[in-house]
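BUG-516 | component: ligand-complex export | severity: low

The export step for copper (II) ion jobs runs without errors, but we want the raw record kept on the ticket for reference. Input record follows.
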Amino acid sequence: MLSDRTSLLALACLTLVRLAPAAELRVNFKADGNSLNDAVAVAVPLDTSHSPEASQPPQATVDQIDKEFVPHVTVVSVGTLVNFPNKDQIRHQVYSFSPAMRFELPLYAGIPAKPLLLDRSGVVTLGCNIHDWMTGYIFVAESPWFAKSGADGVAAIEALPAGRYRLVVWHPRQNDVSSESSHEFTLLEDSKVAENIVLTLKPDFRPRRVPLGGGGGYR
Amino acid sequence: MHSRPGLQLTCFSLALLICVRAQADRLFDGTFGIDYNDNLANAAKANEAVGDAAFNAAIHAGKYWQITDRSSCSATINLATRRQIDFSALDRSSVGASINLQHKFGLGSQAPWLNIAGSAAWDEFDFSPRDAWRYRGAATLGRRFGNRLDIQIELAYEQTTAGHVVDIPFLVRRLGIHGDAFDTVDHSLAVDANYALTTLLTLSCGYTRRSGDVVSSVPIASDIFKASSAITPDPTFGPGRFAYRIDADTDIFTAGLSFALSEHAALNVRYDRIQASGHEQLSYINNLVAFNLTYAF
Ligand SMILES: [Cu+2]
């Protein structure tokens, strides 16, 4: 009997969700005439009543695979717990000097005991003190409505309540002096809005993995 | 029978690598290239200088251990071979081993580091009197400055000890001259800088000041005879030549470009200008150009 009632309740909830007037924002990122991968789009509601209540802090994962951070760019919202599982057979030592989260994990293999709580918005640049070429980024968004572009350059933020928003965009190589650029837009109920963002990129001068000259070093 | 020292060294290194396994990462890279030296004989007189090109290949294989957050050590077996185009007496195969201890003073890619390295190798030449043990010890201090520049300072000691004793006439020995011209000792101070011109192309410049023995293989002459501390017949560059060991100060200027083909492979070109000056105003210049392809796993 209980299961029947639960099913009915679930069906009602699903119908409500489907009927809720949600809009979609598609941001098309381009740089140098090409689709831009790993670009971040965040819709920050200007009407604060939109913020959803989360019962548990969201979780995210940044892996270390073949001495690289995977994914290279991760987007989370403020209050997310981030795990750094090491999938390599060797040890890594992950750190960040970023004002949004300064930390240094001790040298470790496997999964660190405690995930890291990211409680401030901003960019967290990750490094590994053993493998200097390892660089990764966590964009900590001030809103739960965010997306990251894929190879097609499209970042789609779905299920957005109607209202006024500020669009924040970011890319690890964007040439802008300020780390974020933003502008405002309004979403009507059930609407689909497309934005085109063109960024200019700077070169990625991280330490080189391949040795110089005759080799013989640790990579 | 002179290949035995190399065999012993290989066995010792293999045993060392197998014994220490905990949390180790593997090290493996290979280099293949061609180089040209316009004065292989280190001759002071232009008409005695000979140039030649050579193919070379080298493999470094070993293990790396991260001991603490800031300290690591590595051990490798190094195999190398060299084949001259014209002067086959200089064809060489070598087997060796090296140990590195590294400490990083802090956190981040811009923290300075210190590396202490020691290596030993047995070089076996086509012309066996040149066969020698080669030992090297070096301390290197380095750090990155910003995203594009890194600078290293190295203090090194190198010694070669010939594997065979060469007999020289008694009269020459009475003059205080020895036959071990291929036994050499030197120490050097080097400064190297690498600058990323683009994300793929790195420019390297360096200067080395080396003090110690050099070997010049030239026809007999009184000035070099007086300047030398050891002499031995050396037909490497033709009959009638002798190898003279001379104490000299050597300035080495280097410039190189390295193009990253991938995360693991690079194409490198390098130019060295070597200016040596010894006693009796004996001086020579070498120009060395090298191309190579490096692959690091
Ligand atoms: Cu690492």
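Assignee comment: Attached the raw record above. Residues A 67, 92, 128, 130-131, 134 surround copper (II) ion (CB under 6 Å).
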